[in-house]
Fold this protein.
Amino acid sequence: MAKMTMVQALNLALRQRMEADDSVIVLGEDVGRDGGVFRVTDGLIDQFGENRSVDTPLAESAIVGMGIGMAVFGLRPVCEMQFSGFSYQAFHQIESHAARLRRRSRGRFTVPMVVRAPYGGGVRALEHHSESREAFYAHIPGLKMVIPSGPRNARALLVSAIEDPDPVIFFEPKAVYRAFREEVPEAEERLPLSRSQLVREGRHVTLVAYGAMVRPTLEAADQLQAHSGIEAEVIDLLTISPIDDELFTASVKKTGHAVVVHEAPKSFGPGAEIIARMMEKSFYYLEAPIIRVTGYDTMFPLFAREQWYLPNARRIARAVQETLKH
Amino acid sequence: MPKSELELPYRIEVLSVLDETGHLDQALEPELTPEMLPRLHRTMLLGRRFDERMLSLQRQGRIGTFPPIKGQEASQLGAVAALEANDWMVPCFREMVAQLWRGARLENFLLYYAGFDEAVAIGAEQHDLPVSIPVASQLPHAVGLAWSIKYRNQPQVAMTFFGDGATSEGDFHEALNFASVFQLPVVFVCQNNQWAISIPRHRQTHSRTLAQKALAYDMPGIQVDGNDLLAVFRAAREAVERARGGGGPTLIECVTYRMSVHTTADDPSRYRTDAEVEEWVKRDPLERFQRYCIDKGVLDQTRIEQLEQEIAAEIQEAVGRAEAKMKQEPDPMDLFEHMYDQLPRTLVEQREAFTRQLAAEREEARHG
């Protein structure tokens, strides 16, 4: 087993899927010769040629639209949006066609396509390079919306996303891209695109997070344990849509308290959906209001102020203490 | 460096074979077999009569909103007639005659416009995408199909349809650019019907032709008389052959006219005159092609009358079959069909709740 960054693990997933299946095609801006601006597709063009790692002109709508045509034909395109902040130019292809073609053709045509996009803050980037707009995509029927949190689950989820018969939007937390390494086995692993994971057991409070927020959430849990003896249970959502509500509602039934964490804006964010489901399925077990620790309903600031926008371990720990007062 | 000029050897071909006065340019006349001519004529006539019947059904409230094709029969039929069955056809939403040629069934149009999802079923052997309503958004799909054809080294081409309004959309330009950069076997067919709802062609673009937009992408662009089936067929066949032979994409502008409404929800009297429509009625594509077939000796007045009767009966039967289906209550559970390969648990729960709700409503209805 090799220790890998998320970038290397994603590259491994792409390489192995491309070796196994010549219908897997990577396409996007700078994905070929340059290997992607984050190097996720590094070396693929050398191994598979420019017909498998396709440098396209600079046009997000046509990248995804062409991917849809390729998928209808029977290929398995993996489209890269250079940053999720530029994916809105492809939004109508995703909403109007990728998500709908199965239904619109009564199952004759399907779109087994992955749209990968780096998302999220914390990397001192320019405007449009730090937002978390997963709710846009999670709201669309017919899609799946996936966000890994570490190298190993990123690799396994990307393999599953490529093999999935339906379109998958795959957001990659760029704050995690090179933040830490994990053991990633050489043999292909898969994770279901419908299951969250318990990443820390606890009995006092349930913390739900995903993507780049899993690490500060775990950090908060460790601090709470060390300083206050609070045992927090942490759930990593992994798939935003379709949402897995079994694990977190079961956890809330045990703990009676919950805090939901994401860096996306608070209102109408995934946290609202998570909490609504807790209310529907575990209302009578709740002992306190559920708290959201999220980005604000403001523009993501330029990076001199991003530390105040993004949730961190301290904010999360304070929210836990607040909810446990009840 | 001194100021200089770069000469680009660009020109736009303008093609007309059979004009509205019946004059035929024999040097340009495409070879259409004696079997092909009556088939084309019959499809054109069927399309015209079916379009008229759908309009009347809509006005009676028997089907919902639909976009009539009247006047555009030659521009779409001439183009698809140049395709083989396993070539890919990527329509927008005003290609009923082209779809009939490709094997679509009359009753499915009626059911579709009566709001039945199941009417969009596409046969396993068909290489036809379903209609695409957001303007120009289907063009990149044709590019993706063509990219795949090239990648898999298949002897196919992709042909996609759109209107004059679509040439203002980003997807039009992105698709042409990609097709050209990758030199893909795709034919872009613009049915320039002069109106994008209320916006006339000259407010859509300041360009003298739509065909010239191909030039920016270094791709052949040709403007043809879209009411002249022979001209459209000739241009389409050349473009399809070029694409199949590895010669890359082509843009064809068919100059035609939307003789009817944009959709049945539209009132053209707000933006255009009857006199303008009358001018185009004189250039009717059906009449022109019918006269050609008579001159060629594959059709005569007796046969036309016979055909009119056959077609009326065919349409009547289709209306009968469609209306019989419309009378049956559609299965409400279909809401949850064809969403994903496997229905996620969140949707299974919603479907179960919906089933319970339906059962409760039926129970309430039983007890008044």
